[in-house]
Amino acid sequence: MSTISRRSFLKLAGVTAVATAGASMLTGCSLVKYVTIIPILNGEVIQGESLSVPLPGFIENYDWAFDMVMPIVKKKYANIPGFNEVQFELDKTFRDENNIPACRVFTDSETGKDMMYLAVKCNVINGTIAIRSTDGKYTKFISDVSLPDTLSELPKEYVQKLLDKEAANQPNCTITLADRADNCKVVKSFDGKSFNVDIYVDIKAK
């Protein structure tokens, strides 16, 4: 057997909070073994995050176990602007340096433990936000910002938080969003893998 439904898996291995508590009863069964799952996001290991679960040992392909790492993966980007537009899916193209794919259990050569990569990809790109005064006298760059690639404009709430921080740093000035058609628009690079956003503001002394 090469595949198994999620419902069948829950019946067989009991990977729920209740079943995990009683996992000691399962370890005596030759069909079940503990596997350390390593979460991968957009090709990179999520550092400091892993989980150990009992899995049925006779399964070859664990594509259906995708949901196991979703709480970890979603936490990575939970606070980015436009998080509701982030789309997650199984990364079937993932291979590590030894050509080991995701969703396949392998034995680590150093520790002897059973391991498995669960690789996820999502439509998040990184870029730079520039806060610019309309008179050209002030510019501040905020680098390495993450956004979903479907976002065309920064959310107003997010922009206001940035302006509030600027106002706190310049207490002798009033900082307001400038009235421009191109303000806060997300401009993606030619290859679509990065972006730039200009936030134009009016800065006036109090």
Account of the protein in words:
The chain is built from 4 helices and 11 strands. 21% of the residues are buried. The chain has helices spanning 6-13, 17-21, 70-77, 156-169; strands spanning 32-41, 44-45, 51-56, 88-90, 106-107, 114-122, 124-133, 139-148, 173-177, 186-188, 194-205. Strands 1, 2, 3, 4, 5 and 6 form a 6-stranded mixed beta sheet that branches. Strands 7, 8, 9, 10 and 11 form a 5-stranded mixed beta sheet that branches. The chain has 2 domains: 6-122, no CATH class; 124-205, Ubiquitin-like (UB roll), CATH 3.10.20. Helix content is 17%, strand content 35%. The radius of gyration is 23 Å and the shape is elongated. By secondary structure, the protein is an alpha+beta fold.
Notable characteristics:
single chain, alpha+beta, five-stranded mixed β-sheet, 35% strand, Ubiquitin-like (UB roll)
